[in-house]
Amino acid sequence: MLMAVKNNFRFFLQALKVSIMSAAAYRVSFMIQTIFMFANNSSFLIFWNVVFGINRGNLNGIEFNNILFLWSIPVISYGVTYFFFGGVVNINTFIITGQMDSYMLQPKYPLINVLTSKCNFSAFGDFIYGIVIGSIATNFDIKKILIVIFTGCFGSIFFVSTEVILRSLSVWLKDTEKIATRYNHSLLTTFSSYPEQIFSNGVKILLYTVVPVAYISYLPIKLLFHFNIQYMMLIVTVGIIYLLIALFVFNHAMEEYESGNNISMKM
């Protein structure tokens, strides 16, 4: 058991290395997509800057620094997810078309194979953008920058886990593409870019449970202003729970998966 975990972890590290090498191999395309994504994200900050300028730097107790953090930590999470684990968006397609066979034939855990089968170059722009904005927001405080990077990278667990859960449901619900896309891009991404203070208590309950925005955005920001080990442990604990649920759903889905007789091997 321990050897299997060790081998899968080695394979995982090698897959990440391949993702980085593929970006280097297509450096022109990689740089263009990274720059455009960086510029796209910056446009939202320009909007918020105008809003705060009109309201003299304060919006119902919310300061511009809060917005900078909202556009740094969750954006890092998003970037890590879709740059290193871009294949997660193909789970439902592979299940429906029978292409999962190719990954299940390999000796490594199929989910790792699927997650690392695709690299979204533009997502690296999100990752770099998040670090840059987070550094500016913390006034280049090294300790706080490390918190931004750690919580941002750890937050990718929530993005990956929810994608795996919703897309694995294709075994029973057929195509769940729209459900997964709207959940992750419309709910997780959108809610994480708005201050917690603007939501009612009822909505906040959802953001701390069903839609784990609080652990991607709100609690990490609280850690930056007032470091609390309990907040850190809560983020890590809930992240592990989401990951375990994702693994459970994926494994159960593979038990129900009907082969498409696709016996080609993936290299």
Task: Please outline what is shown here.
Helices cover 75% and strands 1% of the residues. The chain is built from 14 helices and two strands, in the order H-H-E-E-H-H-H-H-H-H-H-H-H-H-H-H. The longest helix has 28 residues, at 27-54.
Strand content: under 5%
Order of helices and strands: HHEEHHHHHHHHHHHH
Q: Please, how many helices?
A: 14
Q: Low-confidence parts, pLDDT < 50 over ≥5 residues?
A: none
How many beta-strand segments? 2
Helix content: over 70%
Shape: globular
pLDDT averaged residue by residue = 83
Distance between the termini: 25 Å
Largest sheet, strands/sense/barrel: 2 strands, antiparallel
Describe the model.
With 267 residues, the chain is mainly α. Helix content is 75%, strand content 1%. It has 14 helices and 2 strands. β1 and β2 form a beta hairpin. α8 runs antiparallel to α9 and α11 packs parallel to α13. 38% of the residues are buried. The model has no long low-confidence stretch (mean pLDDT 83).
Topology record:
Layout: H1 2-25, H2 27-54, E1 58-59, E2 62-63, H3 64-70, H4 73-84, H5 91-97, H6 100-104, H7 110-115, H8 122-137, H9 142-168, H10 170-173, H11 177-192, H12 201-207, H13 213-225, H14 229-256
Antiparallel strand pairs: 1-2
Helix pairs in contact: 2-8, 3-8, 4-8, 4-9, 8-9, 9-11, 9-13, 9-14, 11-13, 13-14
